[in-house]
Write a structure and sequence with these properties.
Layout lengths: L11 H16 L4 H8 L3 H8 L8 H11 L3 H4 L24 H8 L4 H6 L9 H17 L2 H21 L2 H24 L3 H18 L2 H17 L3 H18 L4 H20 L3 H18 L12 H14 L3 H8 L9 H17 L3 H14 L1 H6 L1 H14 L5 H9 L5
Length: 420
């Protein structure tokens, strides 16, 4: 998340954007209060936008602002012909800290179609080693919740990787298809975090296909796990359960006791627990959690096979989330307060704190809930500011507090766009 600038460190592009908003607003004879009200924002927020202190980072809000001012989005952006001084130049691209739109557009087509039609060859500099490093970086950014950087890297790297997997020497193709599967798994995970479940489904499906081409069946199962997550976000719980159960049954029939296989199997049981919790099937969710705990105990350590972060700690983090989904706030807090997640990724740490905040909110512990959500935001800002459950909790806390809502809560609600 791009930090909110203050004082002398205001980003010049944000300042220019704010000046443009102010100029259009005054030309139309509207006050800050009137424009802010039309956007469902406060006058203070609008003042900060015009001073460059509050960047407008959500595409939908930017479009709404442009509509209210009667201009195009491009006219609001620094670098367009409407710049003060009237010099015409190409409009600057919109830089959003949580935006995966470019990646979404990329995978809406087929990045390898040109290669398939032309029979092109691998371009210079597209070595397997370089692509391996790019995919590792993609996962690191995904775990850190830096989705803007995920998008930039994916748009640049994915077409090269698709092309390389289809044109490289046969000796390299298995590894390249495996890298392609890992890349699509990372994108699926990123799309899930932005509640773009349809795009997550597309990415997961391509991950499964590429993993099959690589000859790595455990990666196929890891791709299925990503698909289950997408189905849950789509509220297609029947599809999610079928996909997870099919993979679980296949893994158990194979009888692979390697740590890698156990990590995938345990993660799929956690996914099943999530499915049942969302369906309010308490007994079934508890059974799946017990299966995952048993597998984690066999592993005896926290691992990150296939970027699943499975192990004893992650099972308990999922147990907290499951308890919250089932409305068992007391159980969630009892479990969560015993967990030490400092060795896990920022996303996992943020998820635990978010769910503890949700649990406190269920018990009407407003101060504790806000504290957990603010700590989660400090660790994984985009998770709190884009996750549907987090935003719903923040909105609920604002309603409960009413006119006595603390400034910290209102500021958080502004950042998460959770006041409506």
């Amino acid at each position: 998340m791009k930090p909110k600038p203050t004082g002398r460190n205001v980003d010049p592009s944000d300042r220019a954007f704010g000046q443009r908003v102010q100029r259009f607003r005054k030309e139309r004879g509207r006050t800050q209060a009137e424009l802010a009200a039309a956007l469902g924002k406060t006058s203070s927020w609008m003042s900060q936008v015009e001073r460059g202190i509050q960047p407008v980072q959500r595409v939908d809000l930017l479009q709404q602002l442009a509509d209210e001012l009667g201009v195009s989005v491009q006219q609001l952006l620094p670098g367009s012909p409407a710049d003060l001084g009237g010099q015409s130049s190409a409009p600057a691209p919109l830089a959003l800290s949580n935006d995966l739109d470019e990646t979404r557009r990329l995978i809406s087509g087929h990045p390898a179609l040109g290669t398939l039609l032309s029979g092109g060859s691998v371009g210079e500099g597209t070595s397997v080693e370089a692509l391996r490093g790019d995919v590792d970086d993609l996962w690191e950014l995904t775990h850190a919740g830096q989705l803007a950087q995920v998008s930039v890297l994916a748009v640049e790297m994915l077409p090269r990787l698709e092309r390389a997997a289809r044109t490289a020497p046969e000796s390299d193709q298995a590894e390249l298809f495996l890298l392609l599967s890992r890349a699509y798994q990372a994108l699926s995970a990123a799309f899930v975090r932005q509640d773009e479940a349809d795009a997550a489904w597309v990415a997961a499906d391509r991950a499964v296909f590429a993993a099959e081409r690589s000859g790595e069946p455990l990666h196929v199962c890891a791709g299925v796990f990503r698909m289950v997550q997408a189905f849950v976000r789509l509220r297609s719980l029947g599809q999610a359960e079928h996909a997870a159960r099919t993979a679980i049954d296949a893994l158990r029939e194979q009888g692979d006791d390697s740590p890698q296989a156990l990590s995938v199997l345990g993660s799929l049981h956690l996914a099943m627990a999530l499915v049942h919790a969302r369906a309010s099937a308490r007994a079934e969710a508890k059974t799946e959690l017990a299966e995952a705990r048993a597998i984690a105990a066999r592993l005896g350590e926290n691992r990150n096979d296939f970027n699943l972060e499975f192990g004893p700690v992650n099972v308990e983090i999922q147990a907290v989330s499951t308890a919250v989904d089932l409305g068992d706030a007391g159980e969630a807090l009892d479990i969560g307060l015993t967990i030490n997640a400092e060795d896990l990724s920022p996303e996992r740490q943020g998820r635990l704190l978010m769910d503890l905040g949700r649990a406190h909110a269920q018990r009407r512990h407003g101060g504790e809930a806000l504290d957990c959500l603010l700590r989660a935001e400090a660790v994984a800002p985009e998770l709190i500011q884009t996750h549907q459950a987090a935003r719903a909790t923040i909105h609920e806390l604002v309603l409960i507090a009413g006119p006595n809502a603390p400034r910290e809560l209102l500021d958080l609600a502004e950042r998460a766009d959770a006041l409506d």
